[in-house]
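Q: What would this complex look like in 3D?
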Amino acid sequence: MLLGPSLAVSAILFAIGVAGVLIRRNAIVVFMCVELMLNAVNLTFVALSEVHGMGGQIMVFFVMTVAAAEAAVGLAIILAIFRHTQSVDLKSLNLLKG
Amino acid sequence: MQAFLASIGYEHWILHVLLALPMAALPLVLLLPVRFARWIALTVALTEMILGLGLWWAFDASNPALQFVTDVPWLEQFGIGYRVGVDGLSVMMVLLSVVMMPLVVWGSWKGIDTKQRGFYALLLALKTGMLGVFLALDMFLFYMFWELLLIPMYFTIGIWGSSNRLYAATKFVIYTFVGSLLMLVAILWMVKIVGDATGTYSFAYTHLLANSQALAPYGSWLFVAFALAFAVKVPIFPFHTWLPDAHTEAPTAGSVDLAVILLKMGTYGFLRFAIPFFPAFALSDAVGLTMATLAVVGIIYAALVAMVQPDLKRLVAYSSVSHLGFVILGIWGSTVESVQGAIMVMISHGISTGALFFIIGMLYERRHTRKIADYGGLARVAPLMATAFVITAFSSIGLPGLNGFVGEFLVLIGSFGRYPILVVCATTAVVFSAAYLLWATQRVFFNRFTNPKNEGIGDLSGREIAVLAPLIAAMIWIGLYPGPILRRTEASARQYVEMVESYLPPAEPIIANRTGGQP
Amino acid sequence: MTIDPGTPLGAVLALLPEVILTGWALVVLLLVAWRHKSAGDSRLVGNISLIGFALALAATGWMASQGVAAEGLPQMIALDGFRFASDALLLTIAAGVTILSLRWLERQGILAPEYYVLIMLATVGMMLLAGAVDLITLFLGLEVMSISVYVLAGYDRTRRASAEAALKYFLIGAFASGFLLYGIALIYGATGQFNMTLIGAQLAATEPTLMARAGVALMLIGFAFKVAAVPFHAWAPDVYEGAPTPVTAFMASGVKAAAFLALARLLAEAFPGYVELWRPVLFGLAVATMLIGNLVALAQQSMKRMLAYSAIGHAGYLFLALWAHSDAGTAAVLVYLLAYSVTTVAAFGILASIERAGARTVLISDLEGLYAVRPFAALGMTICMLSLLGFPGTFGFISKWYLLSAPLGVGEVWLPIIAMVASGISIGYYLPVILAMTLKPTRTRQAHQTIRFPRPAKFAVALCVIAILVLGIWPRPVLDFASHEAVRLRQVATPILTR
Amino acid sequence: MARFAWLTILLPLLGALANGFLAARRPSAKRLVSLIGPGVLLAAFAVAIGAAIEVAGTEEAIRIQLWTWMPVTERLHIDLALQLDRLSVVLLLVVTGVGSLIHLFSIGYMRSDPGYARYFAYLNLFVAFMLILVLGASLPVSFIGWEGVGLCSYLLIGFWFEVDANSDAGKKAFLANRIGDFGVLVAMFLIWWTLGTLDYAGIDATAAATLPLGGTLATVIALLLFLGCTGKSAQIPLFVWLPDAMAGPTPVSALIHAATMVTAGVFLVVRTGVLFSLAPFAMEIVAITGALTAFFAATIGLRQYDIKKVLAYSTVSQLGYMFLAVGSGAWTAGIFHLVTHAFFKALLFLGAGSVIHAMHHAHHAVGAHDDAQDMRNMGGLRTAMPWTFRLMMIATLAIAGVPGLSGFFSKDEILASAFARGDHSTVYLVAWGLGVAAALMTAYYMARLMAMTFYGTFRGGGEVEGHLHEAPAVMTGPLVVLGGLSLVGGLLNLPAVVGGGQWLEHWLEPVLAPANLLLDPLHLPHGTTEYLLLGGAILIAVVGLTLGFRMTLGRPIPLPADTPAPRGLARLLEGKYFVDEFYQRVIVGPLVWFSKTVLWRGFDQFVIDRIAVAGSARLAQGLGWLGSRLQTGQVALYVSLFAVGAVLVLRALIGG
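A: Here is my prediction, written as structure tokens for the whole assembly.
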């Protein structure tokens, strides 16, 4: 039974993803960290389907699809911001505040 | 008269007509050409007055219960209904406000020369709101009217007020709104508590009142929530600082409505809701003493502050604070005399202060200043105005024979049994009120004629006489023959006091406690 | 009418509004493929998409009137009055936003009719989210909605603010999705179910495990982000400000409504057994959100930003209804969302019309003297502000009363008191708007005179304002309907729980 | 006629209305005003005589119920009712009688004033209120009159309102009165809560049975009532308004500030005599206050130059005598002196008015602006104004206490009563001593007044002198009548020692019975003591008058401008003991300062508005501002906030 370790690994991965989002300043890196979080959850689902059956695995497919869509949209948005500021540094996102 | 009124089914429709008529006329005012606006408002006002005066006869003075009661479902599954009615506590306020209305319209006849449609529309809306507050017998309805009033008043002050109007309007709305926020929670909670106890969730006043013993455990919090709303509105010291600003900056009509009706909503609220709902707490020694003390502090404090005001309207505004202190004192005096007196002060203050504001408004229309220092010796150029002002001032001072005395006397004598020391302190106001009003009168109408700009000021016009004459007549009438009014309020006041007295040691004649026989 | 969602026809029937709207969106997308150049094209597409909303609305109405219900346990999507009400609400909001956008986009020089398609797709997402009885559906709905809105937020590509808003929304949104998803995973792990009702039954039957608790917590976090609850709110003001104004209206009303509706269903069906666990969290969120939202709004100069914080504050109020966890609470969610959405759409509609192409954001001081030049706009805005304030005579008051009754009904007094305190704070920023418009002298007469209200927007705003006033006096139909449906929702959830 | 006693009120009231209407619409219709103003008074006087005749026939009080004023409850049911009894009828006659004379006098005096109609309106109104005061059957009804006369006094003192000092004086009068009224009000509250009634009849009937003799309650009530009297009747400490009240037209001073209104306090004490009788301590206070007032006012009168000021202080002083009388329980003596004083003091004032009238017109004729009231500008007027001189001399002798004239008998009775009360308490002996000293000074300052005004040579310049004329008949006529009354007024209550029957004493007997029942009867001195006292009184009058004439005429009288600044005691007296200044510095000034700086600017505007109200608004705004500063626009911060929130939520759910 690899359930415990798998869940632990996915939790750690998720935490790494969160930490990455918290620490990194590059939009693309942050986005990759978010992807890492999603994939960590995917791992959880896969691990859990060992106990609960197919449901989890079906979910993984949906998540992957969604992540792909998100990536497409996300990269387009990052591109748009790059056109304005010539940078993908999140620090340069300071027009809106207060 | 009664027979005639009964024959036209007066009691069935009057309250609804009073409430609906101004609102019905409102679109007319807004849509028809501007020159009709004031005429429509006047017509509505006169109609309301004529119709409303029927209450004088139709109201059964010997019946302490609520009369003309209507209960139409509105949101019945929540226990909310269109419930209206009057009793002795409210009938005089209703009459006062319908009688004041034509005067207010007429008083604004010349003074309001911009955006007349809006002005008269708001005036009409204000009237519905005011009447609604006094007529509502459903807490939900009451709260709606209570708050709705703010809007017309806000714009009346904010648009047609004088220089510092924005500040005053904002202050007025924020004070009142914030003050009454907790009242909403209290009302809802009350309905829930009573509903849990009786199984009927209803906002009906009578239902809540009949089961008010269920509220007793929460009385303190609920009372505070209600009292805060009412205390701000009255205003009781130290919640009063919005009033001088609002009064000062408002146009004449606004000041008059504010003084005549709006301030009374707070005191009425105490009499109608806050005390009857939570008598055990409201009448406990600590609360009673606190309220009475605040009232007396307000009476003296406001009188002293009024004395040193350089602005006439501000002076009268503080005098309002002082006078309303008497009402609060009378309410907590909790004898039939003091409660009757409190109602009397509510009426008299409306008439006297209303008249004072009218006269100041007339001065302002002529000279565009309210500074006392800008005037002086006006009695020479405007003797009639001076006469009217002096009479009004003395009525406000409480000269016996004029209206102000009756109420104050009854309040003081009635409350003396319960709060002798405080009443003695309050009585000093007879000196202070004379001081501030006479000093002001002197500086405006007497003394040397110093300011040549006042030369062309002119005396009262026919219209202005027509505005003031009924008020002065009322001052003398109420001063010398208040019986008809007292009789109409007596039954309800008595019922109220009987209810109240079960929570209080009765105010016995002093001698009963003191005599140890002849020494 | 009872259907079996397991059959293809049944599935289509069960998802009829969503299907119609999705299909319509695809058709419109095709249309856009060759008509996307001129302002006229954009307008045409917008009008056509309105038909889609009308059809979907009709379908919803039909389903509601037929009383469409599932055989046995509803799978994936709910078939109850609450869903139909949610759908109707969301479709109305979307239609309203579409109407507001009609001329606005052209005026702002945004000539990409895909905008309307995105609105439609986002709406489909919202409807799925709000109607989901299955966590997979819920997640999919959420993502469909979110991804469309990410794009919409950045739709005004030429403006840096818009792009910045989109990126902020996207990054934090995706981050939050991760939490939500992890929550779903843990709940799944704890119960082995995706169906809310079954989850509810499972959770109620067992002692709360760590996994289940963590799952509930993570899902709450995900939703807290979506409804912009403090401290998950920080994105909202920036995004609301940067996004094109109609989109802001869409986010403030539609997205929030969908999230709250889904949360209401989730808490009622899936987590009723954990009520004592999540109530304190909701309490804390409510208090923090109400107070901070309203306080920070005091400091705002820009109308949009002020409304953004006001939206945060209102999210706080809505937690009161959820906290109550009663029929009254559920009904209050519906009523409050309706009132809030109608008002928000109207307010943003007026604001959008006042904005000029390329101009900086509208400050409160820019509205000074509006009444003198554009009285109806000022009047409408005044009524909106009063409704948001919860002033008697407006629907906002009715809904606030209804909302406050919910926690009071279960004996909670402090939340309503804090809500009223927050409401007292809120007059500090609503009133200055009214003051500026009606009482201040006109400073920028010229500017005011250039304000043109597109006819569709005028129509939509007028409708909303009238609704605010009428429902403020005669809210009975809405209240009756909401309380009725709330009871139904519980009736659906209860039999399984007690099984 | 007694049933129509209300006519005596209604008639002046209608007169006031009519004159008021004329003042507003037809101020030039002076002839009509002259007809209405005094006319209604004469009519009222006629009614009063009729009523008096009827009252003479009965010992019972006649109650005239007009209408119910405040029907509040069974226990507080105040009727607007009048009470005609032997006390009120005396006052009724004095008020309408002397009032009629003064109204007539005013026709001449005020003829050329533009506010002629207004003047009569006020004067008529005053009479109406005064009669309500006198005739009221209960304290509240009397209180209408009590304050109403204050109102009229206010209006008449400030009649020439365009001079600031006049308006000031009017205001001051009303305020001082109001301080007293405070006492009356509180007394009413106490009376009602103890006796359950406010009717005089009710008080007479219940007080003795309910209130313990000498008890605190009775003392407090009596003292509070007396506070009202000190205001209305210008006693220490509230006497300061009366001298200033001389700013009004002189007939007003005669009517209101000498003959009628200011004696209302004495009337009230007698009216509520039962309550005072129950409080011996209060009686002592009344007596000693009266005596002190008599003494100090007399000292001030010694050094005044304004003819009306002298008379004003004289009035204060004489009122002090009346309180000394009632404080000694000699009710009749008080009323007796009230009546005689009304005669001779009205005469003095009207005489002074006549002098001032003449001076004023003479000044006017030559365009001089000298003070028409300053005695230093007068002198030798007896040649120009023989009638005025003769009549004023009668009054002077009467007030000085020359035997045979009215003042002699009344004053002597007072002093004798005080002396007699000396058995009870030495306070009365002190009071008696003060009274005797005051009598000496009274004779002195009156002699001084006469000497400065009518003797010697005219000091105001020959040109002015040529324009001095005696007053017209309409003015001298009333003077003659008053002169006659001053001469024979003593007959009213002629003491036994000169063979009199003490008619007034018997007349008032039924009214005073309840009060007298509670008092030890006065044992007026008889035999040697009585003769000694009488002799002493005569001696004092003679010495005082002689000294007054001698010392005034014995040295030159400087004109106002040449008068050296007074020093020492003279300065103190001329400055009226600086009581006004004291009140201004110690009470009025600080109160205004306190109200303005501490209460208004400090508390209202700063503490409440600035700190509490604006402060909480600022606080909210500040918090909001702080919150918006946190919103830096940095994604990192937002994500961190998110994370913090996430941790909190997780902790709440898992840690819980």
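A: To summarize the key features: DSSP finds 21 helices and two strands in chain C. Chain C has one domain: 2-497.
Q: Very helpful, thank you.
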